[in-house]
Amino acid sequence: MLDILVLYYSQHGATRELARLIARGVDGVPGCQARLRTVPKVSSVCEAVEPAIPDGGAPYVERQDLIDCAGLALGSPTRFGNMASAMKYFLDGTSGEWMQGALAGKPACVFTSTSSLHGGQEATLLTMMVPLLHHGMVIAGLPYSEAALLATQTGGTPYGVSHLAGPQSDRPISEHEKALALAQGNRLAELAVKLAAK
Q1: How far is it, in rounded angstroms, from Cα 101 to Cα 83?
Q2: Domain Flavodoxin-like: where (predicted)?
């Protein structure tokens, strides 16, 4: 079985829900299984530490998860047109994996959630791709052959699936967003199978 790492940070739950849908898409591809992982919050208090196991959701990611994965889906809510600091902090600590080429040649995709329609979804997705490109990963977008991409009135971009959470971060994931998240997971897993066969 090929492990596809679905790595996310989520504060209000929307990005976590997208991650779970992407994981379902991955699991729908024969020979692939999703490995859901998250990253801890960044604290401004140096002595503060997160518990070893999160209170809810996926376990915290370990470096070995990156090494073992055959593909990576990376998700974060938008913070001023960029990924959240918790995800950036984690990625900034992956220079060892970069030096080893642990992710080089593996497929990757990105996903995000924002409070407002023009709150930086595309900017976040594009900036999340940059460290993955530095790792030598092969970026997979969402093609317009996905009908939901042309029909959506909420989230969804060719750079990766997105969700419009609303000002209170309480809007449910729309049917189009669900369809795109499942398609993105499926596409990522299919690419991982093809690349692993070479």
Answers
A1: 23
A2: 4-188
